[in-house]
Amino acid sequence: MREMNDRLRSALYYPYIHIRSESWLKATLLCVPSVTRIVPADYTPEDEPIIEAYTNIAGQNGPLLQSTPPDMPAASESQRRLLLKLREHASAIDKKYDRKHAPAVDEYWIHTAKFTGALLDYLNDHRLAWPSVDSHAFGHRNWYALHPTLGKAVMTTLGLSIARDQQYDIVTADGEYHEALLATQEDSIFEVLLHDPTNDVTTTRAQTRHELGQLVITLSGLKLDALLPGRIPELQASPNFHSFQRLLRSAASTIDDADDPREHRRQLGQEADQIITAWRDTRQDIDKDLAEVLFEGVALGAEALK
User: Fold this and answer.
1) Distance of alpha carbon 41 from alpha carbon 39, whole angstroms
2) Smallest Cα–Cα separation from 157: which of 257, 67, 66, 83?
3) Entry pTM
4) What CA–CA distance (Å, rounded) separates 85 from 46?
């Protein structure tokens, strides 16, 4: 039962609301049963129709794309603890992260509804946050800009508290929208703020597993574009697909947090045979037409992955 519960963990999308890439969302849903994003209660995401469709398709954990509010008790309590530490070390924090020490052009924005009122008031009063407009933002919302490191500390505090309380994994977008957690434990967030502001590349096991899954899927030649959103629950229900997910979880637990992508792939190669086999066997459990569309181009194997 413990393994089943672990396999069914949803993924918390960090730190954004809007999904920038349907291909990313599809690939993620081949590694987790659903994706959840942090959405203020009084805000309706301004999704493209192709993304909105995922909110109306039910899988193992309910809709494939779900929402959770930022003001749940666990999240509010974590921001209260962060506020206490900011006050305790006000002199050091203000000298590092006030507006004078932020990039000349605002680089990091947070939706106002993601702050508790007390935290936002404190940040505003100390010139650690200020009203701003993100010219590249999705949606019509109110924003506050922060020093990027302090902004990541706020969002990491929020994300970790929600993930811990709701039993989520945490994944982030790829490409230009990728943002790593500032730390993987709440107690470490403030230490990074005080002593090591350049440490902004922390990767969770869930993110590693997500990356491994995408690598396997890509190198296997899967026709991701041919996968219609409505067929994803069928694929997720495949017994062999569950084996694929279990092997991803096992492989991710053995991968070191290496910065070198070549080392990352070398370690994955050690698990390549079983992962590729489980992924290919998935086609045995799904309708023939879906299997033909998805797996027609699957020709590469473990050696290619290595």
Assistant:
1) 6
2) 83
3) 0.81
4) 35
